[in-house]
Design brief:
The chain is mostly helical and 114 residues long. It contains six helices and no strands.
């Protein structure tokens, strides 16, 4: 989110595939989705913050939130694979699967733990 707002600059190791030596993942996403890089970064940051708030604090619609996180991680994994990143999207795939498992096994929204 901070990078999308221009507060910080993304380090090359994060912005580029293969630890900073490959293609720019966000430029690829900009071309693929047709959305400017700052908007992509802001959208991903906002989605992550809202997801964390709902999953850990609010618990309004945790199942829906977790499915959204899985979809977001699927898009991230697709980007890694498309730019031929050396990890081939394994971490986001694992996070997406974990989110789907959590969505299936989590309790309803109003059952907060204090």
């Amino acid at each position: 989110l901070a990078a999308g707002l221009g507060v910080v600059e993304l380090p090359p190791a994060l912005a580029r595939a293969n630890g900073g030596s490959g293609l720019d993942k966000f430029m690829w996403a900009e071309d693929f989705y047709g959305v400017p890089k700052p908007h992509l970064l802001s959208a991903v940051g906002i989605c992550k913050i809202l997801a964390l708030l709902d999953i850990w604090l609010l618990r309004i619609v945790p199942q829906f939130t977790l499915v959204c996180v899985a979809i977001l991680m699927g898009a991230v994994a697709h980007g890694h694979i498309a730019v031929q990143d050396e990890d081939q999207g394994i971490p986001p795939i694992l996070l997406g699967v974990a989110a789907l498992v959590a969505a299936v096994t989590c309790t309803r929204g109003q059952e907060k733990r204090d």
